[in-house]
Every structure is written in C-alpha cells, then in structure tokens.
Write a structure and sequence with these properties.
The protein is of the alpha+beta class. The protein contains 6 helices and 22 strands. The strands form 5 sheets. A 9-stranded antiparallel sheet has the order 3-6-7-8-9-16-13-12-11. A 5-stranded antiparallel sheet has the order 4-5-10-15-14, with no helix packed on it. It has a 4-stranded mixed sheet with strand order 17-20-21-22. The protein starts with a helix and ends with a helix.
Length: 354
C-alpha cells in the first residue's frame, strides 16, 4: 500500500478520535448548581460546593441567585436551610469601617459541584474555592494593593489569630458548637476587630508582596484541635489544583452511578443537577473515629460513619430510597444515636406516616 495513503488513513483516524473525545462530556459537566436559585415561596436552593454526603458545604451568601452582591462565604453550615457558620471574605484596597459588613458586587461567576470562582467588580479580586470532606481550600487573586481577609462569627462565638499565619474560631448554634482551624500561606501583618471585647468580626491585613494567597481550613463539631487534624489529614499541602482534581473525580464517580441514555441536553442538565442535590445530605460527621451527637451532646467513639441532617420531611418518599441504591450505607449509625440500617429508618417512617 502506498506510504502516503497510509499516512492519510492514520491522520484521518487521529482526527476522528480527537473530535470524538472532544465531544464527550463528563456527567459532572451537566450539573448546574444555579437551578432553583430563586425561591418564590420557600427558600431558594444554594449553589453548594462540597463532597457528596460530607460536612463542608460552601456557597456565596446572598439573598438568592438574582442578588448582585455577595456578603461572605460560610466555611460550612450547621444543617440544610439552617444556620450558616463562620463567614469569610477577601478583598483588596483600603479597609475602613464600612468593610465590617460590606457586601460586594460580583461578575464572572462559575460554579460546579467541586469548584467555585468569582470576580469582585470594584477591585477585580478573584476568589476560588474547592472542597474536601471536612476541610476546604480558598485561593485569592488580589487585583489591587492592600490585601485583606475578613472572618466573622454569624451567631455567637469568637475568631482568634494564632500566630502570623493561623486563624481559629468557635461558633455556638442551637445549643451546640462548631470549630474551625485555618492556615494562610502568607503572613498577617496587621489585624483588628470591630469590637475587641467580642472578637466576632476580624479583618486581617496580609503581606502585600503576595498577590495570590491560599487559605486552607478544617471544621469540626468536636474541637479546634480536631478541626486542625481534619485539615492536616485531607489537605496537607499547598496544592489547590490537586485538591480540585480529587474533588472532580469524586463527583464524577458519584454521579456516574446513573448513566442516562437518550434525552436532550437540557433534560440531562436537569437530571444530573437533581442527582447532585440528592448528595447534599445526609452528611457523615464522624471525625477520625469519633463524633459529636446533638442528641445527647456527647462525643462518641465509632468506626462507622455517623449520618445526620436527613430531615425526613417527605424525603422518605423518593430521596432516601434512592440513597439506599446509590450510597453504600450498609449498616450505619444514623442520628439520634440508634444503630440501624437506612431501610429500617424508611420503614419506621412509612409506618408512622400511615
């Protein structure tokens, strides 16, 4: 066979393979977290960035998807539709008294289940976030001089600076406490509180030489030390892209448990977004072999996951039967502290309802 003909055949095969690969979409790419972002009667859904069934759940704090300003980013939430915990915001430029509660106009927002990015209009600061199970990683790209990080308590508690690069906090909610421990990859050169006695809102000025700054943190319902251990276990290095890549892989594996054949692009977008919502809860709050139970307000040791935040408000009709298929629940501990299978919980709920 003519050598030029062989070359042409191989070239055509390569082009066909390349174009076919480009046309393949991951199931995660169908997810649109902004769907349901405007609630006309009930509260809107939030464009949550998180691991499936995990503690850290982060989104921009605003009224709804039509709100053109962001107040902060909660480091996590206490429960679905309940108290947000530990508000964080980064900005550049001169900080004055208006910045204690300042909300920021934004643009160029991009949201996936595993990554969030946005640009603040006034200063061109870019904020990114990617999650792990009990920890998270923010990356800030400052567009102007004078770089600041604002951390605030949203209920009752305080924020503390522990050295040049470490920040921690405790927040009380619904008779319980949440904790966080965070680390910066640059120095804090100055800081101040809106009220020195309360220490609820703090603005830290960061080293101006660092235009791109990382902030990684862990959360806990047990202690600040446990939050630190959660961070060190899940995000030991300053490698944002690695954390982001792992989060994307985890979501692709979770959502690929159901593969849709046929249907339109819009139908797949709706379906996989709904499936992504099904993984927001229940959440596993076992932290390295122990968990805090809101049922008896004690810390328990367990090798099994401990799932909370299931609500059982109509979720037993469809969501929880779906979870028995998708999630390897097996025999698990489910709040309020009874060892049982999820199927048992569904049956008991069915009996009580009827």
């Amino acid at each position: 066979m003519n050598i030029n003909l062989l070359k042409s055949i191989f070239l055509l095969l390569f082009i066909h393979t390349f174009l076919f690969a480009q046309d393949q979409k991951t199931v995660t790419s169908y997810v649109d977290p902004t769907i349901g972002g405007v609630g006309l009667i009930l509260v809107p859904t939030r464009p949550t960035v998180h691991f499936p069934n995990s503690m850290v759940r982060v989104f921009p704090a605003r009224k709804d998807q039509l709100d053109d300003q962001i107040g902060f980013f909660p480091l996590t939430i206490s429960s679905h539709r309940h108290e947000w915990l530990f508000g964080l915001m980064a900005f550049s430029g001169k900080a004055d008294t208006s910045h204690w509660k300042k909300r920021f106009a934004y643009d160029k927002e991009k949201i996936t289940p595993y990554h969030y990015s946005v640009e603040l209009e006034e200063t061109s600061d870019k904020i990114e976030f990617t999650p792990s199970a009990k920890s998270g990683y923010f990356r800030f790209h400052f567009g102007s001089e004078a770089h600041h990080l604002r951390l605030q308590i949203l209920n009752k508690g305080q924020v503390n600076i522990d050295g040049k690069r470490n920040i921690s906090g405790v927040e009380e909610f619904m008779g319980m406490k949440a904790y966080f421990y965070g680390e910066l990859n640059t120095d804090i050169v100055d800081s101040r509180y809106s009220n020195n006695a309360e220490k609820k809102v703090m603005i830290a000025e960061l080293d101006p030489k660092s235009r791109t700054v990382g902030f990684r943190y862990g959360v806990s319902f047990i202690s600040i030390d446990q939050a630190k251990m959660n961070l060190q276990k899940e995000i030991p290095d300053w490698d944002f892209e690695t954390v982001k890549g792992k989060a994307e892989q985890i979501w692709e594996k979770a959502l690929s448990k159901i593969i849709v054949e046929g249907g339109t692009e819009a139908q797949k977008r709706v379906f996989y977004t709904a499936l992504y919502r099904a993984y927001e809860r229940m959440i596993d709050i076992n932290e390295g072999g122990k968990y805090y139970s809101g049922f008896d307000h004690k810390i328990h040791e367990s090798k099994e996951p401990f799932f909370v935040d299931n609500w059982l408000w109509d979720t037993y009709l469809a969501l929880e039967p779906l979870q028995t298929i998708l999630v390897e629940w097996s025999s698990r501990t489910i709040s309020p502290g009874k060892q049982c299978s999820l199927k048992g919980v569904l049956f008991q709920s069915f009996v009580r309802f009827f």
